[in-house]
Design a protein that fits this description.
The structure is a single chain. The chain is of the alpha/beta class and 274 residues long. It folds into two domains: 98 residues, Translation factors (Elongation Factor Tu (Ef-tu), domain 3, Beta Barrel), CATH 2.40.30; 161 residues, Nucleotide-binding domain of ferredoxin-NADP reductase (FNR) module (Rossmann fold, 3-Layer(aba) Sandwich). It contains eight helices and 16 strands. The strands form three sheets. A seven-stranded antiparallel sheet has the order 4-3-7-1-2-6-5. Strands 11-10-9-8-12-13-16 form a seven-stranded mixed sheet, sandwiched between helices. A hairpin with a 4-residue loop joins strand 1 and strand 2. The chain starts with a strand and ends with a helix. The mean pLDDT is 94.
């Protein structure tokens, strides 16, 4: 059930000059959230921005008894709305609508899971990583950024049992180059009969490259697309994307309802890439 709450800010942790993690008291959302779902948020009492913005649910936080009570959001300060979320203080309030959207489908052993993230595309993989590890699924996070300091939360994933494969464009951490480099090595090391599930989120060119690479090894990818959304509930049609149906015909769907997670082979990438 979708709920709309005026959530209290429990914590606001600054990770770098641009990134922060906001913790919201949202027990009804936390109890229902599944990996890859999102919420629509904006600071309470503010008319700027007018509309809420979509954020992947980063973490589901639990009390000592294990009961879900809060969610966190990974925010990158870019415009007016994200700057307000950067500045909000503990005990402040944030309007929060969710959980929304179609989630990822975690796999069970003996399948292995590869999560591929670029930049703020890390956001849906904390909940997915936890879900996979809880199933006993061997999980690797392939994570790329421009510079080493932009690789966030790596210790958080490592302490939960997720294997890290990192890449930076300046070579300061991990592979010197794109995240597809360690991914290609890992795919080449598996035989075609090895069950491997791939998940990707990040800039559209990165997700397209991941899908092309995976397709070359006979694999498909679940991708979390990030179109602009005005309402998150299908009413405004601002987030339509082109996909192909079972017959191969191209048509448009609303990402907030049909996604944000899609089978990459259904996406009309040439349209998204411009």
């Amino acid at each position: 059930m979708i709920v709309d709450i005026d959530a209290e800010v429990m914590a606001n942790t600054k990770l770098s000059a641009d990134y922060n993690v906001l913790v919201l008291a949202a027990p009804d959302i936390a109890r229902q959230a599944r990996p890859g779902q999102f919420v629509m948020v904006k600071p309470s009492g503010s008319f700027t921005p007018l509309l809420r913005r979509p954020f992947s649910i980063f973490e589901v936080l639990r009390d000592p008894s294990g009961t879900p009570g809060a969610i966190s959001l990974l925010n990158k300060r870019i415009g007016v709305g994200t700057t307000l979320l950067w500045d909000v203080e503990p005990a402040g309030r944030v309007l929060c609508l969710g959980p929304l959207g179609r989630p990822f489908e975690p796999v069970d052993p003996p399948a292995e899971a590869f999560m591929v993230a670029g930049g703020v595309g890390l956001a849906p993989f904390a909940t997915l990583g936890d879900a996979l590890i809880a199933r006993g699924t061997r999980t690797t996070l392939f994570y790329g950024a421009r510079r080493g300091p932009e690789l966030l939360y790596t210790e958080w994933f490592a302490t939960r049992g997720v294997t890290l494969a990192l890449a930076t464009e300046d070579g300061s951490r991990g592979d010197h180059g794109l995240v597809t480099q360690p991914l290609q090595r890992a795919l080449a090391a598996r035989v075609s009969s090895d069950p491997v599930a791939l998940y990707a989120c990040g800039p559209t060119p990165m997700m397209h490259a991941v899908w092309k690479l995976a397709a070359g090894f006979g694999r498909d990818v679940q991708v979390s697309l990030e179109p602009v959304m005005g309402c998150g509930m299908g009413g405004c049609y601002s987030c339509v994307i082109p996909i192909r149906n079972d017959g191969g015909q191209r048509h448009f769907v609303r990402s907030c309802l049909a996604g944000p997670v899609f089978n990459a082979s259904r996406v009309v990438w040439e349209d998204l890439m411009g």
